[in-house]
Amino acid sequence: MTDLENDLAKILITREQLQARIAELGAAISRDYAGKDLLLLCILKGGVLFLSDLVRAIHIPHAIDFMAISSYGGTRTESSGVVRIIMDLNANIANRDVLIVEDIIDTGRTLTYITELLKTRNPTSVKICTLLNKPSRREVTVPLDYIGFDIPNEFVVGYGLDFNEVYRNLPYIGVLKVELYARGESPEHSPA
Questions:
Q1: Which residues are catalytic, by number?
Q2: Which fold has domain 15-153?
Q3: Within 10 A of 67 (CB to CB), how many other CB atoms are there?
Q4: Measured in whole angstroms, how far is the alpha carbon of residue 88 from the centre of its chain?
Q5: Is 122 left (phi over 0), alpha (psi -120 to 50) or beta?
Q6: pTM attached to this predicted model
Q7: 80, 51 in Cβ contact below 8 A?
Q8: Cβ distance 99 to 67 under 8 Å?
Q9: What confidence score (pLDDT) does residue 130 get?
């Protein structure tokens, strides 16, 4: 990990902080959805590490499914505003309680689009659980039901979040050095 760690300005949220907060989220979700038909809908790719720890912290029956959405792409560091569904979920969500599991909420545009789309499929409820929330970047009001951490407007990587498909494997949330993404260069070519 040393090479990847050299690309970070700082560690924002430690592994221990992540695990402690995910345990709290799992307990709250278990309490709130007891006796309900819960489906956790993970938004790929960034949400998969969060989901894998969250499902182990939820102690009631639940199912999981996945959607892949694109609004960034490549070395972009801000949403394009155009949301594309790359992979739709497999499950029928009619009469089910859907909890969207997302890695980060930034402008809110992507989650607004997904939420509105899912509501047309007649679920009992659609709620949102995000690991990270950047309220200072919000352009669209999105009701967030479970929030891991509110974070400042910094470009974060690790624990599923990437820059150009790199850094997802870091076990914590770090802030990427500005000079790496400001030039749009791939991290493989970054100075050591």
A1: 106
A2: Rossmann fold (3.40.50)
A3: 19
A4: 17
A5: left
A6: 0.87
A7: no
A8: no
A9: 97
- For the chain, residues with pLDDT lower than 50 are 73-77, 185-192
What's the CA gap between 44 and 46, in Å, rounded?
5
In tens, the pLDDT along 6-51 reads 899 999 999 999 999 999 999 999 999 999 999 999 998 889 999 9
Cβ burial, residue 7 (10 Å; 0-12/13-18/19+): buried
What residues contact residue 76 under an 8 Å CB cut-off, 6+ apart?
Answer: none
HSE-up of residue 131 (Cα within 13 Å, Cβ side): 31
Give the pairing type, strands 84-87 and 63-70: antiparallel
Measured distance CA(123)–CA(47) in Å, rounded: 21
Instruction: Please answer whether residues 137 and 107 qualify as being in contact, where contact means their C-beta atoms are separated by less than 8 angstroms.
Output: yes
Residue 73: the pLDDT is 47
Give the separation between CA 92 and CA 145, rounded to whole angstroms: 22
Asked if residue 119 has a cis previous peptide bond (ω within 30° of 0), the answer is: no
- The answer to whether the CB of 51 falls within 8 A of the CB of 42 is yes
Residue 187 CB contacts under 8 Å (≥ 6 apart), including other chains: 4, 7, 163, 164, 166, 167, 180
